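Database export, one record per block. Field names are fixed; values are copied verbatim from the stored entry.
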Amino acid sequence: MANAEKVAAVAELTGRFRDSSGAVLTEYRGLTVAQLAELRKSLGENATFAVVKNTLTKIAVTEAGLTDQLSPLLSGPSAVAFVDGDVVEAAKGLRDFAKANPLLVIKGGVLDGKAMTPSEIIKLADLEPREVLLAKLAGAMKASLAGAAATFNALPVQLAQLAEALRAKRAEAEGGAPEASAPEASAPEASAPEASAPEASAPGADAAEASAAEAGSPGAQDAAGDGDEG
């Protein structure tokens, strides 16, 4: 490969490492051309599978800032699955193809710049597709919003009930105070009998006067008798 071609190849690989959301390095030793074509189809529309030269790829990963993550994996016949969309779909394709064709070895990869081991890539494949996860998230958010709306709709009724309860309690407290002081207001009526005491003494005076009149009547009669005798 001429120098210009190598530079162009490195530049292309560097751009794909930088622009892809994920990249998985594999060893394809012993796979036929037909099997590699089948593998490319299984990765879906958002991923591409490219056989690469280790020397050029090492330069590319260094320029892309992925030396620590990927350089140790570049040994033996290497191929890279570049993922531009849903990494779960691509991971599923690699996992399922490797099960059916053990000659494909998943060596590791990167996802958003973070190194991933083969076991982590397999776990990623066990996740549900991005569209399903988004649909579930949307459903959960919709249910949460519906619950919040129901809560907000119930607030006016609860506030009205609380206000009515407070009003009734205040009315009860204000109405009970005058009734409690009613006995004090009736105290003057209890002293009314004392005011009528002079009237109670009237019968005694009349009796005294009557007794005096009766007592004086015989004397008067005696005096009249003495007068007649003289």
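Remark 1: The mean pLDDT is 77.
Remark 2: Strands lie at 22-27, 47-52, 78-83, 105-111, 114-116.
End of record.
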